[in-house]
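Lay summary. Proteins are chains of building blocks that fold into shapes, and those shapes determine what they do. In this project we predict the shape from the chain. Here is one chain we studied, written as its sequence of building blocks.
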Amino acid sequence: MPQSPRPGSPRPRSPRPRFASGLILALLAASSFSLSGPFVTPMLAAGWSPGAGTLIRVGGAAVILAIPGALSLRGRWVALWRNRGTIIAFGAFGVFAAQVCYYSAIQHVSVGVALLVEYLAPVFLVLFAWARTRRHPGWFTIVGAVVALTGLVLVLNLAGASAPSAVGVIWSLLASFGACIYYVIGARKHDDLPPIALAASGMVVASVALVGCGLVGLFPLRATFGSVELLGASVSWVVPALVILGMSTVAAYLFGLAGTARLGTRVASFVGLSEVLFAVLFAWLLLGQLPAPIQFAGGVLVIGGVVLVQAQRERTVVEPPVVAVELADATR
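And here is the predicted shape, written in a compact code that computers can read:
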């Protein structure tokens, strides 16, 4: 028989307020992350290259995260050397490749289409693992993969008048490959490397890679420091740049940390799927990009398929490492 609390003893706090605040924070993180594409598009239209737009985001994030990342190590600098392979892979693929390919994609396709293709990364990962190990991934995964890939066909709308550019789809698939590398790294345990230290050092690696690629002409760093068109008005380039760096990177990361701490990685990972919905909404409001009805239906199937794949993973992995959600979407 449960014992009654002693007089004067504090009552246990209800988890409901914590869940509610965590849900709000996670939704704020998803909506903040989704601002990146809609706000960089006017800069690209004004003459900015995808490489320069990416450098604004990851370079600024590297500077801002440098001090908290260093403090999180507590003098254990050797952890950076021990995890150098992980840091280089995360920075080169999970940040640099995913981000610059996404920005390159939205030069040719809508923000919503680019994100939906990139969000297929978990599906591609489980299909690759199934082909490599020959181990049955589970029926949730199989059904989810079929549903998501069917949704992709509808999103691409190959037979319709609104079929996206093949170049944009290829860039989106390359961004999805970068996201796959990110998920692989995020699924590993890094006991001696705090998540914020991995984020900061990865941003530094990505920034160095961007500058190097810019110097050799692989991804030109072209910028125009004039005005851009936003919501039918001419504004300084600083306005979208500050939104990308401040809201879509720093604030989104902080919201994500706080939300994950309250919800746990399992719930937070599902709430994070709302980023696609927010991105489509903001792209419609800011850019006038509205997918065709068949693409809307495909988007629902893609998100539903990814949910099924994630549900299967949660049946086998109860609580993935926090880094897998704390850094989610920071590359977009």
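What the prediction tells us: The first strand starts at residue 227 and ends at 230.
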